[in-house]
Design a protein that fits this description.
Blueprint: H1 2-46, H2 53-71, H3 82-111, H4 118-138, H5 141-156, H6 171-180, H7 188-209, H8 212-224, H9 230-246, H10 249-267, H11 271-284, H12 293-303, H13 307-335, H14 350-356, H15 358-373, H16 377-396, H17 401-438, H18 440-451, H19 456-471, H20 476-486, H21 488-493, H22 498-511, H23 520-529, H24 533-543, H25 545-556, H26 566-588, H27 597-611, H28 615-639
Length: about 650
């Protein structure tokens, strides 16, 4: 009996020892694959080691898929299963074999005018399978199913009636089109991931590893020190600053929420309120220039405009969104009857904090300056990294071992952060390619045009519904990519300017992370706040009301996208600030005291009037706001 127990114990020890070795090997491979990929991208943009566009895209996807498969098991229950780990190594080997085949064969295919061999088609089918499986593992079953529906559409489209009828295509033809042309997997979305997004992700990671996060937090604390609702306002500023360089709502919550949510709870915010505030401001970080998240770079490529144009268009909406959030957290604190709390700091004045932060401020403003001067975003981010490293060496007056380790960690983490985005871009390439080859994209646009009767507001409303449904449970980039290919063209056809149409779907792609029932940013925040997920989700949805209204305003108020005279832009900014103030009061239902439903609805109406561009709407909105303030003054005077 004892001998049998000893044998079982030994076998268990051997099993765990083998599992430990397998996990170490996976971690080792992830680290070096990520470092290699990040280094290749940095060398490529520097001009030291230049690869052609197809080469860099194929190489990028091949290694991104490998990292994802090494990071995620087939199913969560099989995380420590030896057979599943062996299957993972096999699937990674398949990624490399199919990827290298494409690297060595794309030029011959291009020079022959698109002639492919059976091996090319087989490699294409394998790559499509890998993308669908990586999408399921890394992003979720929803996007994988959406891709599968679009991918299989050509196989049964000839049996459908009406607008959904289309000439059928074989698996071989679809695999060939989607993997050997620039209109499928290796199209614009993946190209943006392999150029703009990875460079900015590495840049953000360099800032984080060299201490920018600590500087941003100290800076935010000094600005809001001794204010009412100081912790929540610190969260707004801190998450905005960090969100500008992260571009991921859920990731931003995970990084900033661990600091800001406990602070807000300590100040007196309820658990679900603290979580909701963090979810909203982290979502808003994706719309704050200069780095508006991965989706904004893709938008610039799709609409064919410089990224600086997208950046400028997003400036005022982002500021209005954060002004609205400031009002919301302030009046929520008043409603909760929270008192101002003084927080102890390390005694550093604002000037000292700014002086110590110059090593981060200078690269950040250099990035903006270079982009405005005409540098491409990825060149600007590369040179900004160089400036950051040079300043760090000058600041510390040495090149230490820690400096080199931080560089390595920054490259690895920056690359790993792009993995789900790269996979989403490849998945979006399947959707875009299918829409292109079958003509389904123009048919969906036609349906929206028909059902909306050509009336812009109806088309916008229908687009919003589609955007919210498609965006549920998807990361912002994935949500925007689907919306940009499926519904944005319909808006352009009814006279909505291209940039306005894409900003519209971009905003709804962003707020999908706080839109119940599937709100990814709210889920993360709820975990940190120890609150109910749905309660956090619906509270975040309410706090972010402004972000659901603003996209509609873009069409009627071009000045908000800086597409008007300076006078009209200035006037629109002032009236819009008053508008978001009114909407914030509507959301919270408190001014000097609790507001009844009638007052709240009147304020909502006044807010929308003030947001709309035009003298008449502004005057009406101001009159309603002044009447409200006068009535509140009288009520307070009477009760006092």
């Amino acid at each position: 009996m004892q001998e049998r127990l000893n044998t079982l114990t030994k076998s268990k020890i051997n099993f765990f020892s083998m599992l430990k070795k397998i996990n170490f090997l996976k971690s080792f491979l992830i680290m070096w694959i990520a470092f290699t990929l990040g280094a290749v991208h940095l060398l490529n943009v520097s001009g030291i080691f230049v690869l052609s566009t197809p080469d860099i895209r194929i190489f990028h996807l091949m290694l991104m898929l490998s990292i994802l498969f090494l990071s995620k098991p087939t199913f969560s229950k099989l995380e420590n299963n030896v057979l599943d780990n062996l299957f993972t190594f096999l699937i990674v080997l398949t990624c490399f074999l199919s990827g290298f085949h494409m690297i060595f064969s794309w030029e011959e295919i291009a020079m022959s005018g698109g002639d492919t061999t059976s091996l090319d088609i087989f490699a294409g089918v394998v790559i499509l399978f890998l993308i669908l499986e990586a999408t399921r593992r890394g992003i979720g079953l929803l996007l994988s199913i959406i891709c599968l529906i679009f991918f299989t559409y050509p196989f049964y489209s000839q049996f459908l009636g009406g607008v959904f009828y289309s000439k059928g295509y074989s698996l071989e033809r679809m695999a060939e089109f989607l993997t050997t042309t620039s209109q499928g997997v290796y199209g614009i979305p993946l190209g943006v991931s392999a150029s703009y997004i990875i460079l900015f992700s590495i840049y953000g990671s360099f800032l984080s590893h060299f201490g920018a996060g600590d500087f941003f937090f100290k800076f935010a604390m000094r600005i809001t020190k001794n204010m009412h609702a100081a912790s929540a306002k610190t969260a707004v500023i801190f998450s905005t600053l960090l969100g500008m360089i992260s571009g991921s709502a859920a990731g931003n919550v995970a990084v900033t929420g661990t600091l800001t949510i406990p602070m807000m709870k300590k100040e007196g915010y309820q658990n679900h309120q603290a979580g909701a505030i963090e979810a909203v401001v982290s979502t808003g970080g994706q719309i704050m220039p200069p780095v508006m998240g991965a989706a904004a770079f893709i938008m610039a490529e799709i609409i064919g405009k410089p990224y600086t144009e997208v950046m400028k268009a997003g400036l005022i909406p982002a500021l209005l969104f954060f002004a609205s959030t400031f009002f919301v957290v302030h009046f929520q604190a008043k409603k909760n009857r929270l008192k101002t709390k003084k927080y102890k700091d390390d005694g550093e004045s604002m000037i000292i904090v700014l002086l110590n932060g110059l090593q981060f401020i200078i690269p950040f403003f250099s990035l903006i300056g270079m982009m405005l001067y005409g540098y491409s975003p990825f060149k600007a981010s590369f040179f900004s990294i160089i400036i950051l490293l040079v300043l760090n060496i000058l600041w510390n007056k040495k090149i230490s071992f820690d400096f080199l380790i931080n560089c390595q960690k920054a490259i690895i983490e920056g690359t790993k952060n792009v993995v789900p985005i790269a996979v989403a871009c490849a998945a979006a390439g399947i959707i875009a390619g299918t829409l292109g080859i079958t003509g389904l994209g123009s048919k969906i646009s036609g349906l929206i045009l028909t059902w909306s009767l050509g009336i812009p507001i109806l088309a916008l409303f229908m687009t919003m519904i589609v955007a919210i449904i498609l965006g549920m449970g998807l990361p912002t980039t994935a949500a925007y990519l689907i919306l940009a290919t499926v519904v944005a063209p319909a808006l352009s056809e009814i006279g909505v300017p291209m940039l306005t149409a894409h900003m519209f779907v971009f905003f709804f792609g962003c707020v999908s992370t706080i839109t119940p029932p599937v709100a990814l940013a709210a889920y993360v925040a709820a975990g940190i706040a120890k609150a109910k997920i749905n309660k956090v989700g619906w509270t975040a949805f309410a706090y972010g009301t402004t972000c659901y209204i603003l996209p509609f305003i873009f069409f009627y108020s071009p000045a908000l996208l800086l597409n008007d005279s300076l006078y009209m832009i200035f006037l629109s900014v002032i009236s819009s600030l008053c508008g978001v103030f009114c909407i914030s009061l509507f959301v919270i239902g408190f001014f000097k005291r609790e507001l009844n439903l009638l007052f709240r609805l009147i304020l909502c109406f006044a807010g929308i009037l003030l947001l709309l561009q035009g003298y008449i709407t502004d005057i009406l909105g101001v009159i309603i706001l002044l009447i409200f303030l006068f009535v509140q003054y009288k009520i307070n005077k009477t009760q006092n």
